[in-house]
Amino acid sequence: MDQLPEDLIADLDVTGVQSLSGGDTAAAYRLDTSDGQLFAKTMLDAPAGVLELEAAGLEALRSAAPPELSVPRAIRVTDQGLVLEWIDESYGAGGAATEAECGCGLAQIHRAEAPHFGGLDPELPQRIGSFPVDLSPTDNWADFLLHRRIEPLLRTAIDSGHLDPAASDLLADLAPRAAELAGPVEPPSLLHGDLWAGNRVVDSSGHNWLIDPSSFYGHREYDLAMMLLFGGFGEDCFNAYDEVYPLVDGWQERVPWYQLPPLLVHAIRFGGGYGNSVMSALKQLR
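Above: the chain sequence. Below: its structure as tokens.
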């Protein structure tokens, strides 16, 4: 209890706290309360606005999500913590039906009307996750992806020593093809923004939940490419997605372009082989 900020749990009638295994940047807890269990995470040195943005992303996804796909309700958000609805997570309840419902639900979120490419709300901090980014509204997705995501992250990765400087020349060669690499023009979609398998949770009934978003309005192939980066989403998921919101020809060839932002983020944060993965993606696109 002493590890939780007082303003995060005030008036929640917390009767017990259990530490959980969490991510690399936050501490996670199960809160026992008189009204049931809740989930809490704390980031004591959180960049300004990170948790506020996560809560806003959860609310946006909740508003757009169909019954096939759930998003936990944000109960409280502070500068250092977030309290969410509890999910009774299971590690063996999924199957073909669960995968199909995930794809169907995500497609419906992506089909929901979105106002522009860029941030959810101009009043929110300008960042995606822990990285500052210009999220001002735009109608030009290809330029947004190149100039506001890929180029700044690539410079940071090189400056951090985690990426071969030759990546700059490779990207310069690809830049004139940015519109082609981004694919046919489509309306903006509400994106999860960090949709790897660890941010899709399956509960004890086999129902899908989305957690830990870095949401903004963008091209739906941004989410789909992230889903393919580390595995964990089955063929039934993508087939069901395609039935609800048909994928555009060539989307799989565009995956390396759309995987550059998450690969660059991982190169900056973790180093290791991620820099090599960035170079491989750039070379694959030539």
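The radius of gyration is 19 Å.
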